[in-house]
Amino acid sequence: MIYEFNGYIPVVHESAFLHPQATVTGNVTIGKNVYVGPGAAIRGDWGEIIIEDNCNVQENCTLHMFPGTTVHLKEMAHIGHGAIIHGATIGRNVLVGMNAVVMDRVEIGDECVVGALCFVRADEKIPPRSVVVGNPHKIVKQVTDEMLAWKTEGTQIYMQLPADCHASLKPCEPLREAPENRKKQASHYQTWNERKGE
To answer: Where does the record place the region Disordered (predicted)?
Structure first.
């Protein structure tokens, strides 16, 4: 669902994948290999939204702003299920966890990890490679090289997803029972706790 608003038509690179149940409105620019999941609302009616190459905006996320401001997701920003980005700038290779809320004029520095359910108050400037958790948010430590490698690997999986969706996602009728020979899906990525052996 892509909508023109007040003369602004979204600009979407052909390699990006926007799920048909996502909504993209107005002054929005979406770069290469971006994945936008079902239920996402990317609403550039009152201001601009820039989503650089290799980002993902997962299911039920909201990107919006107060009038005249910009939402900017820099390259490889990874916006987890249900997160809200309202008038903020998300740095390069940042992970924003599920159901986190990042408020107006916030600047999240490059390579940060914002935890699930975190609330980042308006006007905050988060230094690069910070781990941010809680409501209200607190910086609790620095992102290690190992943690950054884990995050980057997860985002690379999402960078492949647009091409996979273009190649194989299609409406269908459901089966009434699972086939006996239904193959198992590969387990090629671990949670952070699994990676650490906890």
So the answer is: 176-198
The domain made up of 2-142 has a fold known as: UDP N-Acetylglucosamine Acyltransferase; domain 1 (2.160.10)
The model's pTM is 0.95
Listed as own residue / partner, the contacts of 87-91 with beta carbons closer than 8 Å and 24 or more positions apart are 87/47, 88/120, 91/128
Return the SS3 of 162: helix
Dihedrals phi, psi of 17, to nearest 5 degrees: -125, 120
CA–CA dist 53, 166 (Å, integer): 17
d(CA 187, CA 158): 15
Output phi, psi for 155, to 5 deg: -70, -35
Which residues lie below 8 Å from residue 123, measured CB to CB, with a gap of 6+?
104, 105, 106
pLDDT tens, residue by residue, 123-181 = 999 999 999 999 999 999 999 999 999 999 999 999 999 999 999 999 999 999 999 99
pLDDT of 52 reads 98
pLDDT digits (tens, 9 = 90+) for 87-103: 999 999 999 999 999 99
Going 182 to 156 to 37 to 94, the CA torsion angle's sign is positive
The arithmetic mean of pLDDT across residues 189-198, rounded, is: 78
Q: What is the dihedral of CA 168, 170, 175, 178, to 10 degrees?
A: 20
